[in-house]
Amino acid sequence: MSTLVLLLFTGLGLGALYFLVAAGLSLIYGLMGVLNFAHGAFLTLGAFTGWEMARRAGSDNWGVFLLSLVIGAAAGAAFAAFTEFVLIRRLYQRHIEQVLVTLGLSLAAVALFDGTWGTDPVYIQGPAWFKDTTDILGARVPNDRFVCIVAALLVLLALVFFLKKTRYGMIIRAGVENRSMVTALGIDVRKAFTLVFTIGGAAAGLGGVLASHYFGYVSPMLGGSLLIFAFIVTVIGGLGSLTGAAIAAVAVAVLQQFANFYLGGTGDFVVVLALALVLLFRPTGLLGRTA
Amino acid sequence: MSTAAERSATEAPPILRVEGLNARIAGQQVVEDVSFTVPATGITALLGRNGVGKTSTIKAIIGLIDRAGVVELAGERIEKEATFKIIQRGVGYVPEDREVFSELTVAENLRLAERDAAPRRQLVEELFPDLLARSGQMAGTLSGGQQQMVSLARALLNTNKILLVDEPTKGLAPKIVGEVAETLAEAARTVPILLVEQNLHVVRQLAEGVVVLSGGRVVHTGRALDFLDDARLIQRHLGVSSDTASHGETAAEPAQKGAAL
Fold first, then answer.
1. Please, which pLDDT band fits residue B245 given cuts at 50, 70 and 90?
2. 3-state secondary structure of A283
3. Interchain contact B99–A (C-beta under 8 A)
4. How far is CA B38 from the centre of its chain?
5. Is B111's Cβ below 8 Å from some Cβ in A?
6. Fewer CB within 10 Å of terminal CB in chain A, N or C?
7. pLDDT above 80 for A44
């Protein structure tokens, strides 16, 4: 029982990270049709800037941790807004070029991170409470899992509130469904594009700081490794669906953890298999719109 | 003898002027050197068989598809502008197939369309009381007729210089077709309308002028009744008999009877 509980919470913590990356990816693709391969770089920049801030502060208390979350989210948001405004805006409807540019940007960003912070992983500390465990039904669950889960839930709630209760949220929901009709109502949808990129970047940056605590290190490849699974989550959840991304993130991460433990480390394989099954039997994803 | 209103409409500069309009979709020419004007009052019908480029012409006017040529709205060139800016100049667009946002509520669909500082909510509520009762309902769960009301309401919420209305009666029950026609007639009292319509009975009821397209080109312009009463023109350009046209059948239906439109 304790193993099951531990695997479940570890999966939920990882799912929280997947969600923070996939939420932005899904909204960006749903609204703009942009397959953003640079999204992992937003996460990595968030992780490094968050760590850099904590290092310079010379302390690992809760205040510094919370500030590092803000700094990481802000760095991810700024990088994402820059990417949309300077690179992507000129390439709408040119999907091949978008893929090439975002892929190139992700490679360049990794090289920049290598040059700035080195290629080796940087091991990090957090508040002492992170290293402790909490006993749940006999399982000793590392506390940092709870931090990831709570943060992802808060981001999910904030995004749902934004999408449901604000005019820009309404524009984004409408744009995911029919972008050209939004413009045909006299709305400058490009502002919504920049906003979605920025929000996605902020979530990824926040995810970067949390991921660095979850894994215990930051490296230039951190974003890339999470991005692969975030893409899978996005497709399984349904492109453009925030709720779909949340459900798929948890499902993929928990499945991955259980398969790793019970099926001889085959977690990644099982996740890809799940992706294949979804594409075969429900190509629009769990909550994606049917054509 | 022409009425004062007709003389006024003839003499007033057109609200919309299209000249040498060309448009392509995926490399294929769908509108070819189209030129026409829309008077500043009344309803002008844009007619033609299926696939001749009526919807593409409307979309090209507001920049939803790549186009070249001259488009003037109230004397100002707009062909280089982005769609949202053209709409903000005072163009109401009611697309073919309604295109309501199915995962937004009726109220959200309407709120999204509000451009003016003081949108005409009261007018819309008077015209479409059913929508008020269904304001919290997802637009995707509405019937076709109700969705058309949402689509029309979105355009009528704002003060426009012109309405571009694309096949508003398509696929609707006869009773609803009548309601849509009444709404358009009411709207046309205050704003000129360029109407794409296959139902020739509705065209006869509403339109004062016609622009007829064939093969992506304009092949006829003139008074609506003159066109609808000319069996030879109807047969040649729409592929239906004047008898069909005068008895209110849609120009699309005869396709099933062997006269493809």
1. low
2. coil
3. yes
4. 12
5. yes
6. C
7. yes
Whole-number Å distance between alpha carbons of A71 and B256: 65
Q: Chain A contact for B83, CB < 8 A? A: yes
Give the domain CATH number at B230.
3.40.50.300
- Looking at the domain assignment, is residue B217 inside a domain? yes
Dihedral, CA atoms, A65, A67, A68, A69, nearest 10 degrees? Answer: 90
* Domain annotation covers residue B106: no
**Residue B153 included in any domain:** no
Establish if A167 belongs to a structural domain.
Answer: yes
Structure tokens at A200: 């996605």
How far apart are alpha carbons A248 and A230 in whole angstroms?
9
| CB distance A185 to B82 below 8 Å | no
Tens digits of residue pLDDT in B24-47 = 998 888 999 999 999 999 999 999
Closest approach of chain A CAs to the CA of B135, in angstroms? Answer: 15
Is A161 a domain residue?
yes
Contact of A31 with A200, CB cutoff 8 Å: no
Is residue B88 less than 8 Å (CB to CB) from chain A? Answer: yes
Q: Check CB contact under 8 Å for A170 and B93.
A: no
In a domain, A252, yes or no: no
Closest residue to A170, CB basis, from B62, B87, B104 = B104
Q: How many structural domains does chain B have?
A: 1
B152: tokens are 């029309």
Would you put residue A182 in left (φ > 0), alpha (ψ -120 to 50) or beta? alpha
Domain tally, chain A? 1
Q: Percentage of residues in chain A with pLDDT exceeding 70?
A: 99
**Domain of A20?**
2-222
Residue of chain A whose alpha carbon sits nearest to that of B109: A174
Spell out the residues 6+ positions from residue B134 whose beta carbon is closer than 8 angstroms to its own: B106, B142, B146
Residue B26: predicted pLDDT: 84
Q: Does A160 touch chain B (CB under 8 A)?
A: no
A 262-291 → B contacts, CB under 8 A = 289
Asked, for residue B211, whether it belongs to a domain, the answer is: yes
The predicted complex's ipTM stands at 0.86
Q: Is the pTM of this model over 0.80?
A: yes
Range of the domain at B59: 1-90+160-167+192-249
The tokens for B198 are: 């296959």
Q: How many CA atoms lie within 13 A of B20 on its CB side?
A: 4
The answer to whether B84 contacts chain A (CB < 8 Å) is yes
Q: Is residue A258 part of a domain?
A: no
Best of B84, B106, B158 to disrupt the A interface (most A CBs within 10 Å) is: B84
CA distance B190 to chain A (A): 20
B112, A184: Cβ pair inside 8 Å? no
Q: How far apart are CA B140 and CA B169, in angstroms?
A: 18
Q: Does B115 touch chain A (CB under 8 A)?
A: yes
**In Å, how far are B52, B55, B211 from B259, measured between CA atoms?**
15, 20, 20
